[in-house]
Amino acid sequence: MAPVTRYGSRMRNDGSSSSDPARTGGPPLSRGTLLAGLAGAAALAYVLRGHRALADTGSPATYEVTHSDAEWHKLLTPEQYDVLRKEGTEFAFSSPLDHEFGKGTYYCVGCSLALFSSKTKFDSGTGWPSFYAPLPHAVLTRDDSSLGMERTEVHCRRCGGHLGHVFDDGPKPTGLRYCMNGVALRFEPAKS
Q1: Three-state secondary structure call for residue 175
Q2: Among this protein's residues, is 111 annotated catalytic?
């Protein structure tokens, strides 16, 4: 059985560990130190996420559709509120819209702005509804470096609701993948 590295210690075949600072880059981390560090990082991410959300959606002059936080709570389900107003993410493969491929239009659940046409929807295999382009003047984007990644966040142009992220691994003709939270969208089939 090969040795296994765990938290800076080298595990021996007999289950005991050795801590060679020259080999591991320093003394082994205790479980308490590791958990405290993770808790601190999570708290910092939560605080920074809250400040970003307030800066983006808190100004009545910024968006055509605005509501107080209490009004948003009344207008949206808890899941919709978490995604649109707090920049949350739904679980992958949880949205029925991921498997919706009928003709129609996808609207923002926060303000009913038309965001995407079914003509640009594709199956990305990621577990979220994906599109290679939004409708004209429907979304805004901004850089997002949360969670230690460089991403581009997508918001509704009219109400500022968080929709998801856009990546550069989509199909032609744009090469983009607008990876949207289904809970932030409402699908209306095309009228025959």
Answers
A1: coil
A2: no
